[in-house]
Specification:
With 332 residues, this protein is an alpha/beta fold. Helices cover 39% and strands 21% of the residues. Strands 1, 2, 3, 4, 5, 6, 7, 8, 9 and 10 form a 10-stranded mixed sheet that branches. Helix 2 (42-55) links the parallel strand 1 and strand 2 (60-64). The longest helix has 36 residues, at 284-319. The model is unreliable at 1-18 and 285-299 (pLDDT under 50).
Length: 332
């Protein structure tokens, strides 16, 4: 029988073949490794991809995911051919403790990085703090022990009366969201770029079972912030371009993320690395605009696929009717 999907498949193949050719490694270009952050983070999926696209004009660059900022900072210190996207608070702490780092490491750019708390949609934690009535979570996830959320916020996580009796899990990412959906934990705390286009935030807001609470500071009521360095309470607003998705405003704790380099790499190479950052490659507006393009493409593609499936379903219905002479579509 005739498959109605074949023309679409051929068209898709043609579009792929017409797309830009992958960059071929040039033996004359210096090799760089970019440590880009966790897999589902906006740091890796958006910021690092944008930066990598700019840097591949002058370097043979490899992007690798990383957990937290501490290990990437050490890696950059030990190897000038490694650069990394790291949090400013972790960089400042490392610099204060290591005299060698102060002479070798340089930090450029400032992308907002803020604390978010994912909960179940029907959770009491979706209520304003004054309506909670002393409710405390039984279990939370703060991501890997070496990740930025735990290392940066350990002082208030461990001193918060609200979290004092909560069991702490260290999965993070997709595994933490899975545990949240089935009620194994009450909240997942993570640090990311404040935008609906960050993959983890998009995944949460698109999931009917999950939500981002605006009552973030309620988790830390009564906590000691004497050891909390580099974070400030900040009111953020995440604006959606989609009419059915509401904008979100919340007060949370924020620091920044930037690019870390080792100045032993050499003047010319460093200038080529820092130039796109100085020209706005890490700026929030630039990053969001690229994310919007990707998001819109994925959304339109899903609509086209749903429409195609609907048409195929209608045709199959009519071809299955007794006495029909229309050849049945065999697409699966």
């Amino acid at each position: 029988g005739f498959s109605m999907r074949k023309p679409l498949a051929v068209l898709g193949l043609a579009l792929v073949m017409m797309g830009p050719s992958p960059v071929v490694a040039d033996e004359t270009r210096p090799k760089l490794t970019l440590l880009s952050g966790p897999e589902l983070s906006g740091r890796h999926q958006v910021t690092a991809r944008r930066l990598s696209k700019e840097l591949e004009k002058n370097f043979d660059i490899t992007t690798k995911t990383s957990i937290g900022s501490d290990e990437p900072i050490k890696a950059v210190l030990n190897d000038p051919s490694i650069i990394a996207l790291v949090q400013r608070d972790r960089f400042d702490l490392f610099m204060a403790q290591d005299e060698l780092a102060e002479k070798k490491l340089e930090f450029y750019g400032s992308v907002p990085s803020c604390l978010f708390v994912a909960v179940r949609d029907a959770s009491p934690w979706m209520l304003p703090s004054h309506e909670l009535g002393g409710i405390k979570p039984n279990a939370i996830d703060v991501g890997p022990i070496e990740g930025d959320t735990y290392t940066s916020l350990a002082s208030i996580l461990n001193s918060s009366p609200v979290l004092a009796d909560a069991a702490m899990d260290y999965r993070g990412g997709a595994r933490a969201l899975s545990m949240l959906r089935v009620g194994k934990i009450d909240a997942y705390l993570f640090i990311d770029r404040p935008s609906f286009y960050s993959p983890i935030i998009s995944q949460i807001t698109e999931d009917e079972q999950l939500a981002l609470t605006t009552n973030i500071l309620g988790f830390f009521k009564g906590a000691s912030d004497s050891q909390l360095k580099g974070f400030v309470p900040t009111e953020i607003e995440m604006v959606s371009d989609l009419p059915w998705k509401k904008d979100v405003t919340m007060t949370t704790l924020c620091t920044s993320t930037g690019l870390l380099v080792n100045n032993e790499l050499g003047y010319e190479a460093l200038d080529k690395i820092v130039l796109p950052v100085s020209e706005g490659a890490l700026d929030e507006q630039t990053i969001i605009s690229m994310s919007k393009i990707t998001f819109a493409y994925d959304y339109v593609r899903s609509l086209i696929q749903e429409l195609w499936d609907f048409i195929v379903g209608i045709l199959n219905y009519f071809t299955s009717m007794p006495g029909s002479n229309i050849p049945r579509n065999e697409a699966v």
